Amino acid sequence: MSNDQTGTGRTIQLFLVDGVPNGLIIASIHGWTGSILVSTQSTFAKLLARPEADRTGIYVLFGPDPDDPLSMRAYIGEGDSVRERVGQSAKTRAFWETVAVVTTSDEALTKGHVRYLEARLIEMAVMAGRVTLDNGNAPSADRKRLPEADRANMEAFLENLKVVLPVVGFEFLKPKATRTLATDSSLGDDRSQFEIRHKSGIKAFALEIDGEFIVRKGSEALKDAGYKHNSSYGELRKELIEQGKMVPDPAGKRYVFVEDFPFRSPSAAAAVVLDRNSNGRTEWKVVGEKNLTYDDWQIARSNSPL
């Protein structure tokens, strides 16, 4: 259960059990005894039939939150035989689309280990704030009682999980980028801040952090733009309005973001701001550089020496 040094390159191994990208996947890190089996609902029976599923381990059910279209939901569990527990949990929870089962190739995880891992994963998920947990009450403190050496090993195990889980689509442990905006002084560099200044007078500002494009609180968006063809991000925009994350300004002529909001791409952010399909790579400009687009900025960065 070794853990490589952080800040260095990592080799993640993805084995496509069925030989196709949408089949059962086994993921691990080179030199680590841990392994993560990932399946969808259509390949769930194959996961349950795997010998790894009969080992002591933990599992995560993951999917859209039925109560909040802008969020994801997760359930974290453990078991002496994961097969039995994950089967029960999957049967009683309709939200999940993918499941990850975490075990080890050397069967080194004990009941105490997985109870600790389950408690820590729930704790880390709550702190990250990216998903709604379906677990209900948090595990009791006694689930984290392990000898000091075992705790150290499990924390190293968790560091590897934090690397592999996002690669296979389980992004619930990384803290929201919006939580770092007020504390990270490096974000003050104007070269990493972007803006849209539309001819209508609306202004929107954004930052890119850890692969997320974050539109800042106070940014404006067009209201009743009247475009004939609706944006492909119309549903997302509708949800932002319905949930009060974008509200009309006092004059009722535009929308205003009442909090920082992360988008998956500059184009998604531009489409919501401009209420139409938009190429965010050209719509967003570097703050203070009127003609320097996001695309220009990114190309310049790629040409810079490492």
Write a structural description.
This protein is α+β, with helices and mostly antiparallel strands. The chain folds into two domains: 12-175, no CATH class; 179-303, no CATH class. The chain contains eight helices and 15 strands. It has helices spanning 44-49, 82-92, 111-128, 148-167, 234-242, 266-274, 280-283, 294-303; strands at 12-16, 25-29, 34-40, 57-65, 68-79, 98-104, 131-133, 193-197, 203-209, 212-215, 220-222, 246-248, 254-257, 261-263, 285-286. The chain has a seven-stranded mixed β-sheet with strand order 1-2-3-6-4-5-7. A hairpin with a 2-residue loop joins strand 4 (57-65) and strand 5. It starts with 11 loop residues before the first strand and ends with a helix. Residues 1-6 and 182-191 have low confidence and may be disordered.
List its traits.
about 300 residues, alpha+beta, 2 domains, five-stranded antiparallel sheet, 8 helices, disordered N terminus
User: What profile does the largest beta sheet have?
Assistant: 7 strands, mixed
Number of helices: 8
The percent range for strand residues is 25-35%
Work out the count of structural domains: 2
Derived structural class: alpha+beta
Q: Residue-averaged pLDDT, rounded?
A: 87
Overall spatial form: elongated
